[in-house]
């Protein structure tokens, strides 16, 4: 006699499908669960953490669904699809971050050249009129790109402050060609 209690419909009373009373065979759901558990163990034993994580995510989602907690819990296939989409989006974000860093590096190469020109010609490190125009231009660009203009302004102000600091350092370390040391 089986120790598993069912309600005669193949359900074990815990919200999941179990063995049918006296049938001695697994339901499709129980077979799928066992297969996923074997896959997770195989992945763990082989050192493939991503398969273990995926199996754990699927198992967690199924456990929550089986316990009646279905808030935001999807079918395991949906969870895998969502994880794949998250991975794709995160890869795009990583690529964009890399591009931002490279663009900033190029910008600072140009501003270093500007700093040397200013130092050689005794021009001040800061140019408030230019900075105001740049901020206004960047705010308009941000609005058209659906980016918070206040955020864009804060970012540009941060960059401008760093550029001015670089220009001041360049000016302090650039020898004056008219200074003969007399």
In terms of topology, how is this protein built?
Layout: H1 28-46, H2 49-66, H3 76-120, H4 128-144, H5 149-173
User: What portion of residues belong to β-strands?
Assistant: under 5%
Average of per-residue pLDDT values: 78
Q: What can be said about the biggest beta sheet?
A: none
Give the topology string: H per helix, E per strand. Answer: HHHHH
- Radius of gyration, in angstroms, nearest whole number: 32 Å
Q: What's the oligomerization state?
A: single chain
Find the structural class using helix and strand composition.
mainly alpha
Distance between the termini: 110 Å
Poorly predicted runs? 1-23
What's the count of strands? 0
Number of helices: 5
Q: Fraction of residues in helices?
A: 55-70%
Shape: elongated
């Amino acid at each position: 006699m089986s120790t598993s209690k069912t309600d005669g419909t193949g359900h074990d009373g815990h919200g999941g499908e179990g063995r049918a009373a006296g049938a001695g065979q697994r339901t499709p759901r129980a077979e799928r669960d066992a297969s996923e558990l074997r896959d997770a163990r195989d992945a763990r034993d082989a050192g493939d953490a991503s398969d273990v994580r995926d199996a754990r995510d699927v198992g967690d989602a199924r456990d929550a669904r089986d316990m009646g907690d279905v808030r935001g819990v999807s079918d395991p296939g949906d969870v895998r699809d969502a994880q794949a989409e998250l991975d794709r989006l995160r890869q795009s974000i990583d690529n964009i971050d890399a591009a931002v860093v490279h663009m900033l590096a190029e910008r600072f190469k140009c501003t270093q050249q500007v700093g040397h020109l200013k130092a050689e010609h005794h021009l001040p490190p800061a140019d408030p009129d230019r900075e105001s125009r740049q901020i206004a231009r960047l705010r308009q660009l941000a609005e058209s790109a659906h980016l918070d203009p206040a955020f864009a302004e804060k970012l540009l102000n941060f960059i401008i402050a760093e550029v001015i600091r670089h220009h001041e350092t360049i000016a302090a370390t650039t020898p004056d060609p008219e200074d003969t040391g007399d």
